[in-house]
Amino acid sequence: MHNPTRRSAVPFALSLLVALSGCDGGTTPRPDVPPDARDGDAFDDTAPDGADEASPDSADEATTDVPDDEASDVPTDVGPHECEGVAAVCIDHVTRSFCDDSSGTPVWLDEACPAGSGCVRGECVAGECSDACNLGDTDGVRTCELYDLTTGSWLVPDPAAGLHDRSRAYQLWLRRDGMAHGGVGGNAIYSDPPAYEHVTGLGHIRDSAIWTGTYLAAEAFRLAATGAADARRNVERLVETLHLWFNVSGHPALLARFVAPAGAHPLVAMDCAELGVQCDVEYEGTRYDYWGHISRDQYQGVLLGYAAAYEALGAAGEAHRALIREDVVELVDELMLERDVPVRFVVDGLTLPASRIHLRYVILDPRQMVGGAITFILDTSDLENAEMIGFQEFTPNLAHVLRRIPLLGGVPDIPRSSSAIMLASFFRVGMLVTDGVPGLEARHDAYVDYYYHHAEEGGNVEEWLGIARTWSYDSHCGEAYYGNNISMQPMYNWARLEDDPVVAPQVRLDVLEARMWSSFVRTKNCFFSYIYAGTVPGHDPAVVDAAAVQLAQFPAPPRVDWSIDLRTDPRYLPHEDGCEDQVHHGDAVDVGERCAADFIWQSKPWELYCEGDPHVTYPGVDYLVAYWMGRRHGFLADDSAGRCLAWR
User: Fold this and answer.
1) Is 378 a domain residue?
2) Which of 199, 238, 399, 577 has its CA 20 to 30 A from that of 15?
C-alpha cells in the first residue's frame, strides 16, 4: 500500500504535469503515485495487464477493455432478471449498462456509446462524457489521464484554470497523501517541503470520521451530477470503510473516529494507553485498533455522506445501500430506545453515589464506562458544557437529563438547537433509507410516528423545531466557529428531506433562512451558501453567483499551510473591535486569501493572520464537497464538458 518514502523527489505540481505529459506517445516516465497507497489506503484500484493504446472512445475498448476490478457493482448488486425498473449506469466513460427486457426476461446489457458520445448519468450523450478512473492511477501499463472526446486527443489537466480539473487534482492529492486505511486525515505532514514527497504523518486523525463522511458526500454529489463510474466505485469503498467504523466496536451505532488494522498505522499516532483508543479489537475475523470517545460532530459528516450516497447509488447500488441502511436503522433505533442506565455524577469535583437514570437519545460506549456506569462531570456554573464519558447523547433539552441529578431537579431548560437539528435530521435519513423497502414497512412507520407524534419527554419534531428556532451564533471573535458546520451539515439533510407541507416551510424558512443563513450571508462561505440555496426555494440568485466567485478563488493543490498576514491590507480595514487580527465582521476574508485549514468552511472567516507551517498540507475535502454540491444542484456548469478521465 502507500510507501512513506517515494522514489521521485519531484514537487507535486510538477509531477502532475510529468505524469500527464508525452501524450503524443512520448517516453517520459510517470511517477508511481496512486493507489498502492501508503498506510493501507482502502482505494486499491488496478487495471489488467496487457491494456492496449486504442482510442478510449472506440467501441472495442468500451465493450471489452473494462478492467475487471474497475467494473461497476451493478452485476452483483442487482443480478440478472432482477434489474427491471433499475436506471442505467455508466461503467466507463463511453460505455453504459442498462436493463434490457426486449426478450421478455430483463437482463443487464453493456452498450458502447456511438463515436463522439460518452456516458453521462447512464445515458449516451453527444459531446459529453464522465470520468472512468481517478487521475494518476496506474497499473504499471496504463495510466488514468484526461481525454478529449471530441478531438480524440490526450490533455494535461489545468487545475489552476478549471474548477473541474481542480477537483480532479485535489482527489489525486487526497488519495496520494491524505488518506490512511480508507479514512481522511486532517492534514499531511512532510519532511521535505517544497518537494512534498515524503509524508511523515497524518494529523488530526481523531476527526477522520467527519471528513471521511464529508468526502463521501462529495463523491456522492459527483455521482449524482455526472454518473461517473469512478465516482460510483469511490462511493462504494467509502461506504464500506464507514460501515466498518460503525460496527468495529461491537456496540450498536457506536461510530469510531478512525480504524486501522491492529498495529499497522505508522503514519497515524494511536497510543493504546490513551483515553478513547481501543486496540486489538476483533471484528469479523480481523483485529483492529480504533479511536473511540466519539463526539456529536463526527456523526454529522457520516450522515451527510450516507444520505447523499443512498440517493446517488440508486437501485443499481442496492448492496451498498443495504450497508448504509443497516447503520442508519441501528442509529435511529438506539436513539429511540428509552432505558435506565447506571451513572456516576461528579459535581463541582464531588463524586456522588452511583445511581440509575432514565435516558433517551443516547449511544452507549461500554468500553469507556467505569464500573459499568456512564459518567457526567458537571460544573454548576456551566451546566451546558458537561463532560460525558461512556456515551454520546443528542439531547435537545439537556435539562431533561440534569434534573435527575440530586439537588438539580429545578434546573431550568437548557435548549440545544444543534442537537435538535441533528436529531431531526437523523430521523429524516432513517425515513429515507426505509421508505418502500420490503420488510421494513413497520420500522418506517415507527420512525414517522415517533418523529411527528411522540408525546413523552423529549417530544417530537414540533418541540425540536421550537428548540431549533433558538439557534444563534454570537460568540465573541468567532469562538467555536466550527459549531456552525456541525449544525449546517445536518440541516442540509433535514431541510432537503423534509416533505411535510406544514413542517418543511418552518425548517427551511424559520430555522435555516431566518436564524442560520442570516448569520452567514456576509461570511463568503461557499459550502453554507450551497446548503442554503440547495434547500430553500425562492432564494436570491445572487447567493449562488457570489459563492461561485469565491469558490473560483480556492487555490489549486497542494493546499499548503502558508503564512498569511493581511493585517495592514487596506481592503480589510477597519478591524473588528476587540478581536485581534480580524476584519470587521460585516465583511470576511476572500476565500483565495484565507488561512489554510482541514475544512475552511468551519474556520473563522475573518482571520487576517496565521503563522503557517510549510511542512503541512490539507486534503481539500472542503473544495471537493463545495464544488460538487454546487454541481449537483446545478449552480455550477461543467467547465470540462467533453473531457473525461480514461485509461491510456
Assistant:
1) yes
2) 238
Residue 30 counted as domain residue: yes
Q: What is the pTM of this model?
A: 0.89
Which set of grid coordinates corresponds to residue 551? 469558490
Q: How many residues does the chain have?
A: 648
Q: Is 636 left (phi over 0), alpha (psi -120 to 50) or beta?
A: beta
Q: How many domains does the chain have?
A: 2
- Whether 508 is covered by a domain: the verdict is no
Note the pLDDT tens digit of each residue in 67-80.
333 443 443 466 65
Q: Is the pLDDT of residue 36 over 60?
A: no
| Separation of alpha carbons 621 and 208, rounded Å | 11
Joined together, the cell numbers standing for residue 325 give: 441502511
Strand segments, DSSP code E, in 101-215 are 107-112, 117-120, 123-126, 144-148, 153-155, 179-180, 183-184, 187-190, 199-203
* DSSP 8-state assignment for residue 476: G
pLDDT at 506: 98
d(CA 158, CA 143): 17
Residue type, 594: R
* Band (2; pLDDT cuts 50, 70, 90): very low
101, 135, 161: which is the final residue of a domain? 161
Pick from 615, 579, 577: nearest CA to 596: 615
Structural domain for 56, as ranges:
12-161
Lowest mean pLDDT among 43-52, 305-314, 375-384: 43-52
Q: List the beta bridge partners of residue 258.
A: 291
Q: How far is CA 545 from CA 78, 530, 594, in A?
A: 41, 10, 20
Rounded CA gap, 54 and 96, in Å? 19
Q: How far is CA 380 from CA 348, 353, 373, 419, in A?
A: 7, 17, 21, 21
Torsion of CA 139, 240, 482, 560, to 10 degrees: -10
Report residue 625 as a C-alpha cell: 464537497
For residue 108, give the nearest of 117, 120, 121, 95 by alpha carbon. 95
Select the more confidently predicted residue: 609 or 383: 609
* pLDDT average, residue stretch 379-407: 86
The pLDDT assigned to 409 comes to 85
SS3 604: coil
Q: Report if residue 4 sits inside a domain.
A: no
With beta carbons less than 8 A apart as the criterion, state whether 544 and 148 touch: no
| End-of-domain residue from the set 161, 179, 208 | 161
pLDDT digit string (tens) for 599-623? 999 999 999 999 999 999 999 999 9
The Cα–Cα gap between 599 and 592 comes to 14
Say whether pLDDT at 233 is over 50: yes
Kindly tell me if the per-residue pLDDT of 337 is higher than 80.
Answer: yes
Arithmetic mean of pLDDT, 143-148: 97
Fill in the amino acid letter for 365: D
Give residue 405's pLDDT.
Answer: 76
d(CA 289, CA 183): 13
The residue written with cell numbers 435527575 in the block is 404
